[in-house]
Amino acid sequence: MNETAGFMAMKGAGYYSKATTGARDVINLATPLIIAAVDRMNLADDATRVRVADMGCADGGTSMGMWRKVLAHLRRKFPSRPIEIVYTDLPRNDFSQLFRTIHNQTDIESYQGELDEIYPYASGTSFHQKIFAAESVNLVFSATASHYISKVPCNISDHVHMVGASGAERRAYEAVGRDEWANLLTLRARELVPAGRLVFLNFGIDEKGRYLGHTGGVSMFDMFNRLWRELAAEGTITEAEYANTNFPQVYRTVEEFVAPLKDEASSAYRAGLRLEHVESRHLVCPYAKAFAEHKEATKFANEYIPTLRSWSEPTFAAGLSGARPAQERMRILDTFFTRYRDAVAAAPEGHGMDYIHVHLVCRKAPP
What we know:
The chain has helices at residues 15-19, 21-29, 31-39, 64-77, 95-102, 167-191, 220-234, 239-243, 254-262, 267-270, 286-294, 297-319, 326-346; strands at residues 2-3, 50-55, 83-88, 118-123, 137-143, 151-152, 192-205, 252-253, 273-283, 355-364. It has 367 residues and is an alpha/beta fold. The chain has a single domain (2-214, 247-285, 352-364), classed as Rossmann fold. The strands form 2 sheets. Strands 2, 3, 4, 5, 7, 8, 9 and 10 form an 8-stranded mixed β-sheet that branches. It has a two-stranded antiparallel ribbon with strand order 1-6.
């Protein structure tokens, strides 16, 4: 199995937040859900610390608008309580850009300077491992991150993502996804204080079988696969490089998400984690939505492709041989994403990365 922590990171220097406006919109629209979960914790204004966590934070830009509102809500309700906010991601994450964003050194408005007694920290530990001491976190939040698995179980013979896999290969990914999701929930249950809340906005497969970029029209992951396959057929990349390109992701159904929360024998359930709310939401791709208004195919392609590249490039880069010089690898990636852009510009209808999320809210039951 290929470990993912060593290479996975969103594109840095603020690229991710600037390009992924859809992810930001998903989080902002879920803000009332998060505030309602905070209110149900029934915290007292007793001058003790409140700790919240943003897991899989990337550069922090997509969640900043939400945290400004949630932290302001906490500050109004509990003026005597200092608040720690801990951002977590993998070791290669651009934490420097994260702290520049927090400290108002980018064009994203931060809570820093708006609110008193807010203390930001960061952890470079994967959410597939322990991050916090037991019963030390009040609120755990994560968006568009828990579909990442810590290891790729096998190469997919004729695709780059598990949604295009079949047979034993598909089952291998689903098995890893099932085990790691159960473990992730158990870890978070351990870290939450009694009556603490977990709010996850998960990429998944909804009740209609839809998932990210696969909601009708051109299927995004199929398009990724076709263009990468073309580069292999031309000899631009080798067959081994094509085979080694596998997204370290598992998209789960609603039933798969809630299974450990309903099974009284599961470790997460025994650790006290209880399901409060689940729903699936569909957000139309903001770039496709804008294209429907302006009808400029080239403009759409130029705006749309960066959002795909912001999170998918590490996977395609990881598939390339380490023996290739860095400049050569970048030329291949530029060629790949340019071809996707040109395909969209030539025939824009049906393209778009609609978001499908499964929203979960859980509470930590008292012992």
